[in-house]
């Protein structure tokens, strides 16, 4: 056992008297001195004293004063937990709430990590349709995770791992593997205790891994439980979290329940009954909220808070009003203004470690966006426009870059299938509107995607951008689209296509990567952070990044540009200015004699941050406003840049 800091100071603070006395203080002093000399080993490293038990000596109990001090220090150093649950309906913004709680605690000087629990049986989000759960966010280690982890990374500026996203599939897979190996020693494997123990062990293990580049574990781990309280698939997690809260004690566990306070249109009154029922169900499952985060269109009135306090057994000062705001950057400020940090810090006994919140920079960022008057129109030509969360990171990257250029992004959603020639007959109004929107925009962006639906419309959009010198950014699939378009309309290869869309085409300008599995879909793509080297150091993309020799960006693809067509395309004016370490896998394309026509095989949106916008996105916004040559406006070493 090791006691750090307090135990050694308790030894040093004991009074030393020459004369022998029989009082209890002197006896305690002599006991501590003997323990220090014969049973304990005192060591010192810069800034830290420690007292360790001598392994060759018989252990002696520490006196009460030393034991209390050591326990207090040990408790202070242990990671504390903040659990975010949701009730009434899904989609209340638990992810933004969890991220904002993390921001406020971080502003108090605490180090924060995050865990997202998704109760679905999928191992990860990699094989899920964007229409089901929005975009698939990709981490540095190649983890395909829920989009909320993107919120965590953007808000807290941390680098998470795939283990920070817990799913039912991962838990059951781990339990079954242990059962097959015989780890349970013939026991009947059950949800309780084996599944719940696995959940608790996973949470403890992940929360101990630093995500901010430092060596020590975080002070606080914010856990978001996906879904709504009462969902049958989340019951094992609720039980595991109940057990965890009991074993940790009240000083180490804080529960924030996010609920809805609706307003009925006819009556116009804020209704508390849905939240009352939600809290009642949560309490029936063994968890009692310490704070309530109430989502509403307008701020809660005082009588509503008092009513919620009375029926939900939560102090009035711990009922947080999270009403609709102009942009989500205001949510941490709302929490700060309602002293949510004080309530959480008090609950977790972290007053000695935390200071007052420092959110001046965050406040400036939120208010600067509200004060922007000029906007830039960006045509986003996509496949999954019916659910805007399908492109959440792209939208956030456009926001970061636009604000850096003192502009508000005005995203014009264009369904790629509406641009196709066939739509002129089947849906003439949608076809005309789509083309009108595209032509009225200042720039065009084609994001990633899978499948052949809407591909013809994307090719037409890329052709329009190339011929009319409209700023264009193609991401992953968008880069491949630009290669197909150039091959068809400039090289004259009418059958040029991707192997993804046409396996029989003689001109496979985009091909299946040879190392990727053709039989399994999950976790088989080229994933995670990969290094891209600039083949031409003076290219525009290199300048946007600050002219480094290479950049590190996140990837998610199973198709690549066929290297055998690269010489032909470069001769036609499409320059491949970036490649991987082998020199054969093309990563970045630029079109000659065009103000801004760039395609990247990677996903720069995943590393964009509010204060470090992604260089390709920033370049697109600058080009749309005819400021692309003012590269001094772009800070060197933006998101993704490396030495």
How would you state the average pLDDT, rounded?
A: 87
Q: Based on helices, strands and strand pairing, what is the structural class? A: alpha/beta
Please tell me how large the radius of gyration is. Answer: 29 Å
Number of helical segments with 4 or more residues? 22
Give the topology:
Layout: E1 2-4, H1 6-12, H2 24-39, E2 40-45, E3 48-53, H3 64-77, E4 80-86, H4 94-107, E5 112-118, H5 130-133, E6 137-138, E7 144-145, H6 148-156, E8 165-167, H7 168-181, H8 191-207, E9 220-225, H9 235-248, E10 253-260, H10 273-284, E11 291-296, H11 302-312, E12 319-323, H12 331-337, H13 340-348, H14 360-370, E13 375-382, H15 392-404, E14 408-415, H16 423-426, H17 428-440, E15 443-446, H18 455-467, E16 472-475, H19 477-489, E17 497-498, E18 508-512, E19 526-534, H20 540-544, E20 550-557, E21 559-561, H21 566-571, E22 574-579, E23 586-591, E24 597-600, H22 615-624, E25 641-642
Parallel strand pairs: 4-9, 4-10, 5-8, 5-9, 10-11, 11-12, 13-14, 13-15, 15-16, 16-24, 17-18
Antiparallel strand pairs: 1-3, 2-3, 6-7, 18-21, 19-20, 19-22, 20-25, 22-23, 23-24
Helix pairs in contact: 1-3, 4-6, 4-12, 7-8, 8-9, 15-22, 18-19
